[in-house]
Amino acid sequence: MSWTVRPEPVGSAVAVALWRAYYTEVSDRWYELHEGRRTEPAELEREIAADAGAGLVPPGGVLLVARWDGEPGGTAGVRLVGVDGGGGGCVGAGVEGATVTAELTRVFVAAGLRGKGGGSVLLAAAEEAARSLGAGRVRLDTRHDLVEARALYARHGYVEGPPHNSDQYAEHWFRKELSVDGG
C-alpha cells in the first residue's frame, strides 16, 4: 500500500467530499475548543458552500488529491498569490530579484489514514506543484490548536514568521523558500 497524488477538479465528487471532511473537522475542533459544541449543521453547509475553491484551478492554482491504495484520503491546494520584490527565490517572476509566492491551503489527511506519511507526501507534491506554477516561495497560515499541522510544517522546513493576512482564524504564519532542485 502506498500514497499517490494527482490533480483533481475542485468540483469533483471526491474533492467535494474531502473538502467537507476537512472543513467539518477544523470547524468542529474550533467550536469545541472555544464554545464547547460542534458546528451547527446550517453553519457548516453555508461555510462549505461559501468556499468552492475558485483559486485552486489552472492556470493559477491546483487541487491535489492523495489516495492511499487507490482510496481518496487527503488534499492540498496550491494557489498563486503574488510577487514579492527581492528575496532570493529561485524561480523568477520576470523581474530581477522578484519571487512568485504560492499559498498552500486545504492541507488535510483523513483521520483514519494519519500516521502513514500522507502529510509529507502531500507537502512534497504541493511544493512541486507550486514550482510548476512558477513559485519560488510558499506560504500558509494555520491555527494554534492544529498542533499536528504546525509540527508537520516545521519538520519540512517551513519557518514561522509575521502575519501575511488578517484571517480571523489564522494564528501562525509559515513560509518556505523553494529551490529549483526540489529542496
From TrEMBL:
The keyword Transferase applies. The keyword Acyltransferase applies. Keywords: Acyltransferase, Transferase. Pfam families: Acetyltransf_1 (PF00583). It comes from the Bacteria. Residues 17-181 form the N-acetyltransferase domain. InterPro entries: Acyl_CoA_acyltransferase, Bact_Acetyltransf, GNAT_dom. PANTHER family: AMINOALKYLPHOSPHONATE N-ACETYLTRANSFERASE-RELATED, AMINOALKYLPHOSPHONATE N-ACETYLTRANSFERASE-RELATED-RELATED. This is N-acetyltransferase. It comes from Streptomyces lasiicapitis.
